[in-house]
Amino acid sequence: MSFEMFAVGAVLFAVYIYLTIWNVTHNNKKQGQEYESNKADLPSDELDSDGMGNFSRFPKEEK
Length: 63
Prior knowledge:
By secondary structure, the protein is an all-alpha fold. It has one helix spanning 2-39. Helix content is 60%, strand content 0%.
């Protein structure tokens, strides 16, 4: 009886670990594909010499 309980627990644990790893890798690939498809939509900023994006720029003065 003890060995059967151990075997059932080991099988359930192995299935749980497999599905967890599959879920992480599947969602990582999906997120990478979404990033690549959205990357083309982002405008490039050739004046961004500091690499910080546009939030570090001073706003234009309004007259």
